[in-house]
Amino acid sequence: MGAIHVAGLAKSYGAVDAVDGMEFTVERGELYGFLGPNGAGKTTTIRVLTGQIEPDSGTVSVLETDPTAEPIETRRRVGILPEQESPPSFLTPREYLEFVGEVRDLDADRVAERTDSWAERLGFESKLDTLHTDLSRGQQQKVMIAQAFLHEPDVVFIDEPLANLDPLVQEQVKRFLVSYAAGDNAVFVSTHNIDVAEEICTRVGIVADGRLVTEESVADGEGGESLLEVFLDRVEGADARDTPTLEQLDA
Ligand SMILES: Nc1ncnc2c1ncn2[C@@H]1O[C@H](COP(=O)(O)OP(=O)(O)OP(=O)(O)O)[C@@H](O)[C@H]1O
């Protein structure tokens, strides 16, 4: 069945068909890139897969749980780094990770140990007891990465993992994601960064108008069309409908 399985998924918001006939499967050991233009339905799909919203129709499973019927069980098993989410302004990284550890049923010693190792890995040791409100965007993103992996989940959903990170930390996080997936976990990354997807993902799914339009294996490093070319080719039809031409703008 795969670590993540989606079949015939549909979700509308009023008259907007955000997701319409989405299908894909992600196996353990894969670092799967989810690419698509703005409004293609990526976040909506992730929200269904993590039990945050109910679909209108279709079947989804994550680690053999049904996120629609048992959202708490699904969320217990996965890690989630949502789009543009910040840690609570009124807590420090240490307090926040303690809180996440409790929710994740980890004992306090393990949380303390993992907090220290994540802080060291991503370089926020000196900020562990500083309120998030006094941390930079990049430092807050590091804490959000740590919370997603704190309980060493078998499946992790990440939206734009490298947002606000400096180039050095970006390299560390990329290497970490590759090794984490290789350890028999499924890492699902939604991103607009096609170069990064091409560099680190084992496979990518390209989404347009609420459905998967193509899947590509990218880890083999073989020549041929670049991922950017594939992306532009597959989403062009959707863009052409929505985006006015220069002549139309001039008129
Ligand atoms: N809560 C909501 N209420 C109404 N419409 C919504 C809601 N959430 C998303 N939509 C609409 O659903 C469509 C898909 O949105 P979604 O956020 O899933 O796209 P996305 O691929 O994640 O886009 P982006 O790359 O810009 O983050 C868009 O047209 C969006 O405006």
Automatic annotation (TrEMBL):
Record key words, sorted: ATP-binding, Nucleotide-binding, Transport
Pfam family, one: ABC_tran
SUPFAM superfamilies listed in its UniProt record: P-loop containing nucleoside triphosphate hydrolases
Domain ABC transporter: 4-234
GO molecular-function term, one example from the UniProt record: ATP hydrolysis activity
Superkingdom of the source species: Archaea
Similarity-based family: Belongs to the ABC transporter superfamily.
Protein name: ABC transporter ATP-binding protein
